[in-house]
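Write out structure tokens for FAD/NAD(P)-binding domain-containing protein.
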Amino acid sequence: MEHTNHPRAGIVGAGIAGLSAAIGLRRAGWQVEVFEKSTFKNEVGAAITIPPNATLPLSRWGFDFKKGGAVQNLSRRFVSGLDLKMITNQQYPEIEEEFGSPSLTIHRVDLHQGLRKLAIDPDHTKGIPVKIRLGAKVVDVVPDTRTLYLEDGTSIENDLIIVADGSHSYLTQKVNPNAGSLEPTGRSVYRCLVPMQRLKDDPELWSFWDGETPGFIGFMTKDPHVLFVAYSCRGDEIMNYAIVHDTQKGEGEEDLWNAPASKKQVLEELASFHPGVQKLMDPVDEGEIAVYHLWKRQPLETFVNGSTALVGDAAHVMLPTHAAGGSIAIESGGILQVLFSGITPGDHATIEQRLKIFDKLRVPRCNLAMILSNGGPWALHDPEVEKQIRRFYDGPLPSKEDSMTWERPMRELLFHYNAFEVAEKALQGTQD
Ligand SMILES: Cc1cc2nc3c(=O)[nH]c(=O)nc-3n(C[C@H](O)[C@H](O)[C@H](O)COP(=O)(O)OP(=O)(O)OC[C@H]3O[C@@H](n4cnc5c(N)ncnc54)[C@H](O)[C@@H]3O)c2cc1C
């Protein structure tokens, strides 16, 4: 049913970014339609970290963390993969109190399902339920006419278009013709999920977690540069492994999230690791490991063109160093909610003006997260990284000594962010 008194938004892609934008706009009073090329049959089996900057919008939208099996993330231990000596042990049990929202890890499928529920929930007090069209591939967007074109030949005109078609975006360059191409980073990730009970059943394996504060553990070696990170999800029933390594021949050439990898490949990467770390692969079944290549794109100067905006990986694809990619995409949903409340259908001048504010808020913040993430755990030790950040962001940065991933100043910089307040302040600034 058409709701003609409401402005219309078309969103390309129903990943974390597209769904978050849909929820925000729905709550701002928009009639939202999401076009998703897949049929959601191959949802991804892996976990994701959602720090307070992401859990804050999710909480505000009523995300059910309990149902989603979200698990507390209150520590980050980095251990030498060679001899198991502690490199750094960050404990942040007070993070929820300090930043106003919890730090969690969650299975991707559970996050996605929770977001979908918030988008389509039939309760009209939350706005018009979002319509998600599956198997609907968008082949073009024309920002000047606010029109998107589907593969079946249909064209749809909107008041606003949000492009959230992910890292392999075909549409990024339609919105920002100066955007560079996607580039391989040379790094890939093996990932798999292990039933927690299998780890608990073996005291040697479980010793890495027994009595420890819930959170990440990372085993690392510098040469070869391998980082094996493990954290829990789905109500502590499943352990997520991610093994970041230099891409091996034949890996990551396909545009696939689920390209299979063997235990042998993983153990070759872990060859120099302590036997106790290698043994962590024992409870993993052959056939359960996937490999994904990590991509990057040079930072964009703008995410906006007229009444069309880029969000999520389509705007800022990055390495997972700071758990930032999905989280800042969720933030963008909160920003959209504030900036696009009270808009009259067809008021293109106001919509374009609000998108300019969106751009002013998102380009510095998202490019900061992306450049830091792509620079790795010691990014700020490289003066070139800071120079690149300064092209977009002029706020405070941690000193290089305190800048490692999840150290306190870095947590303050990346995770202490209230998207709603930031957008309200920016909007007020234009109305004073
Ligand atoms: C190994 C790894 C670990 C990560 N860990 C974290 C973490 O801990 N925390 C965190 O915040 N982030 C993390 N990230 C980043 C995070 O996963 C991404 O930033 C996030 O999933 C991007 O969401 P998206 O919606 O932009 O893109 P996607 O999830 O790729 O969604 C894009 C959607 O668009 C659809 N689509 C594509 N083209 C079209 C089209 N033409 N028409 C219609 N639909 C289309 C696709 O089918 C897809 O559903 C990690 C990333 C990786 C690779």
